User: Fold this.
Amino acid sequence: MENLKIKIGIVDDDLLFVQLLENYINNSEHYEVVLTSTGGHHFLNETESDLPDILLLDLRMANGDGLEVMSALSQKDAETKIIVLSSFYRRSFMGQMLKMGAHAFLPKEIELEELLKVIEAVYHHGHYFSDEQIDVMRSQLSNKLPEFHSYSKDALTEREIDVLKLVCQQLSTKEIADILFISPKTVETHKTNLMIKTYVKNMAGLVIYAVQNNIVNANEIVLFDK
Assistant:
């Protein structure tokens, strides 16, 4: 049986960039670009269903910026994972991007081979942080970002905390299930309950929650191996 390809969407108002990136991605046997759009408004108006697995999203666009797209998708509880890919990249924006629902935040100058590695990491593990970004987050999460909710770590069960710690190690659902001797379905239930209790919208938000509430140390977060 043929392996299913990771479905990619590209939203960027630089048409040449979109065409070049689409051609490069489609040359890989593991990925397929299933939609492209030249602006956030066009993407949101034209895409009601069949959202991609991964959305490569620019921040600044004339026809609806990336923040609008992230906000709209979060309200729809979409399962699409968002990689913000922008020439307006600033390390200081990292915390805000995660808070808005991005699963990775990258400069457009990134090497194409490296981009594919990030896509793979986000698809399988839910988020991607570089060494440099982790350093920024260590300072930002300590006292600059507002708390997401009124819950404390005491509101979580012991098993939920176990799952949360393993999520921060970028383990897959199956790997977590094997370590804790529970079913993958039970792991997914714990993840859902964690997001409900902590008022976050994705796995990256859970990592931020874990750091803010001293459940894990920022130094213990496992990075994607380059």
